[in-house]
UniProtKB/TrEMBL annotation:
Domain of life according to the entry: Bacteria
Claim: Repressor is one of the keywords in the record: no
Names of required cofactors: NADP(+)
Coiled coil spans: none
GO molecular function: GDP-mannose 4,6-dehydratase activity
Reaction(s) this enzyme catalyzes, per UniProt: GDP-alpha-D-mannose = GDP-4-dehydro-alpha-D-rhamnose + H2O
Similarity field: Belongs to the NAD(P)-dependent epimerase/dehydratase family. GDP-mannose 4,6-dehydratase subfamily.
Listed name of the protein: GDP-mannose 4,6-dehydratase
Kinase as UniProt keyword: no
This protein's encoding gene: gmd
Top-level EC class: lyase
Amino acid sequence: MEKRKVALITGVTGQDGSYLAELLLEKGYDVHGTIRRSSVDFRERIAHLEGKPNFHLHYADLGDSMSIIGVIAKVKPTEIYNLAAQSHVQVSFDSPEFTADVDATGVLRVLEAVRLLGLTETCRIYQASTSELYGKVEEVPQNENTPFHPYSPYAVAKQYGFWIVKEYREAYNMFCCSGILFNHESERRGETFVTRKITLAAARIKQGKQDKLYLGNLGSLRDWGYAKDYVECMWLILQNEKPEDFVIATGIQHSVREFCYHAFKRVGIELEFHGEGIDEKGIDKATGNVLVEVSPDFFRPTDVVNLWGDPTKAKAKLGWNPNKTSFEELVNIMVDNDMAKVAAEDASQKVRTNLAEYLEKGIVK
Ligand code: NAP
Ligand code: F7E
């Protein structure tokens, strides 16, 4: 008899959840996703999947044990991908308790539900862990043995998630593991993460719909990959013989400033950066106009500034290719998507325009 392939994805409406759902449907899984009640019913990233026969949605919240137990009991998944989280680092300073409840205790709720329901032998669990655990880094580049130094309420909560997964693996022999994923972006990335904020602004500035882009720390260094490539790794981690944790990264590092340079270049604007710190500016070489400025509104109480992952273990043990999509290709995919999106926005789409203004003024981070 063919093995049941039933996946439950918490956070299916997010960037990663939507790509993972597509991947698992292609692989012949029955895919179940959790959603939260919202006053707006349109789920942009998964709208194209709703109505497919093997794709099912359930209401559940990581802050609500009963809903988690209910959905796991009903679906009896063979694989759980726990992607749900309050995932914005800056927001975790504004909502630290909520972040702890969802990103730390929420992980425990999923593990305990699987255990209490007697599914430990039949259900494998993937936990969405993060390079933010390395935080105020103690080693460059970072691998599976690098000590953690979490440096935000988000990272501290995720650190609990990481350790409780390890604890359940060791205490109850459960197949549960963490992917320590470095930043991964895409045309579906939330609009207040720095990459998407930049690609949208480059498109809007090019099309005369925005004057300037305000950013925080331009010197911050990240190892940025393409989300579509990274969800493949989540699946590979659960197909591995043994439950193990893996660093998932490209092994290549760039600054926020460099990301800006490449994004604007794609729309035909060459930026030159002059000045330092708060006075640094990105200037259009052709016109002399200042297009990028630094605003302290986007500085964090503690900022992680030197993330650079070493994906050697994932390459060797999972056969994963960390460089399928290059940094330049990633920037181009995002910018091209946003050029089309912005071109399609008309004057009546006030909401989007307002968001751009809020982003500029630092009201929405
Ligand atoms: P995302 O786009 O922000 O998606 C987060 C998902 O979690 C959304 O579906 C959201 O639902 C859901 N969610 C939030 N709070 C919830 C709650 N209380 N109960 C149930 N669901 C809840 O994040 P992402 O970029 O796809 O990241 C996926 C996971 O990987 C997250 O755990 C994130 O922390 C982690 N991670 C991301 C990166 C990255 O670079 N993208 C790197 C390392 C780790 P709504 O749509 O209803 O808000
Ligand atoms: O910031 C700097 C900011 O918000 C990247 C999440 O997916 O990846 C993500 O967290 C860097 C930081 O992502 C602005 O200070 C400068 O140093 O795009 P971000 P993040 O904080 O790295 C990790 C791996 C996760 O796990 C998280 O879930 O860019 N930066 N200027 C800015 N950041 C933002 N958002 N906005 C700015 O204007």
